[in-house]
Amino acid sequence: MNTHSYPSHVHLVEVGPRDGLQNEAQPLPAAVKIELVQRLQAAGLRHIEVTSYVSPKWVPQMADKHEVMRGIQRQPGVCYAVLTPNLKGFEAALADRPDEIVVFGSASEAFSQKNINCSVAESIERFAPVVAAARAAGIFVRGAMSCTVGCPYEGEVAAQQVGRLAALMKGIGVQHVGVADTLGVGTPLKVQRAFEAALQHYELHQVSGHFHDTYGQALANTLAALQLGVAQFDASVAGLGGCPYARGASGNVATEDLVYLLHGMGIDTGVDLEALIDAGAYISAALGRTSGSRVARALLARRAQ
Ligand SMILES: CC(C)(COP(=O)([O-])OP(=O)([O-])OC[C@H]1O[C@@H](n2cnc3c(N)ncnc32)[C@H](O)[C@@H]1OP(=O)([O-])[O-])[C@@H](O)C(=O)NCCC(=O)NCCSC(=O)C[C@@](C)(O)CC(=O)[O-]
């Protein structure tokens, strides 16, 4: 007997062009990134994290941010999101007219230091003027909360640390928070506890999940979040991704795998799975590797028969 009532629609945030490509050793031309975004939006994705306005010394893979943002043929109804860690990043992003900016903090102190070179409290001080400026400009502000179940430097992360960060984000006007399992070490009940901590400060429609699949738990963790009523998730086409400051973590849950799960449960996403598989095949070929999506591999093998 099914005792859970699942949402009828899930909103997907495609993070492949940003999270997916920020960790690639081999530089990809901006034209390939632009083509990827075009293919993702053609597949029905309505929310795409395109790039980051971070220091090119820290993340050289995102140095072509202006070229990529300016090269996309925008479709009405698609939200183009970008990461902005500080005012310098936000001001640089403004010229490229993002629909949403993402400030990114960490539930663990050590990861905050490694990733953005400041403590959690200092990060909030940096984000506050960014949030105020974005909201004044009518740009939606999402907050990514890294390391909500585990940290590469500190190990297990307590739910209270997630609650603390969510409260700080709420306090400066962040409108939505993403509960991220940066390392991909989480399991369903731990993930639910992290969400419950975030939900003490945000409403259900203001939280989303971001799961890396290092230990193969991302779909199970998605199901656990769905059972709490969470209806927005990040995913990365072909399972690309990883954070340069979370060594050993694999890519995000593959968008193809997530769409297959959701459609199989009767949950609408608005995404055309076949077109998404083609977008995944395109970027996998550009990177010279097999897709990290099991669903894509299975469906491509079936097509080839
Ligand atoms: C945050 C900073 C910039 C602080 O870096 P910092 O070195 O502490 O910054 P600073 O203010 O001392 O400035 C130092 C230099 O950086 C420049 N600078 C300063 N800010 C910017 C900027 N915005 N854009 C471009 N340049 C910038 C600044 O102008 C200066 O240049 P210099 O005078 O030496 O030539 C740095 O640590 C950084 O860029 N970190 C990148 C972190 C990152 O992109 N991580 C990956 C994304 S987060 C993620 O993947 C996790 C997520 C979201 O997916 C969820 C999850 O899974 O957990």
From TrEMBL:
It catalyses: (3S)-3-hydroxy-3-methylglutaryl-CoA = acetoacetate + acetyl-CoA. Keywords: Lyase, Metal-binding. Its EC number is 4.1.3.4. One of its GO terms (biological process) is L-leucine catabolic process. Pathway: Metabolic intermediate metabolism; (S)-3-hydroxy-3-methylglutaryl-CoA degradation; acetoacetate from (S)-3-hydroxy-3-methylglutaryl-CoA: step 1/1. GO terms for molecular function: hydroxymethylglutaryl-CoA lyase activity; metal ion binding. The keyword Metal-binding applies. Residues 10-277 form the Pyruvate carboxyltransferase domain. InterPro entries: Aldolase_TIM, HMG_CoA_lyase_AS, HMGL, PYR_CT. Belongs to the HMG-CoA lyase family. This is hydroxymethylglutaryl-CoA lyase. It comes from Serpentinimonas raichei.
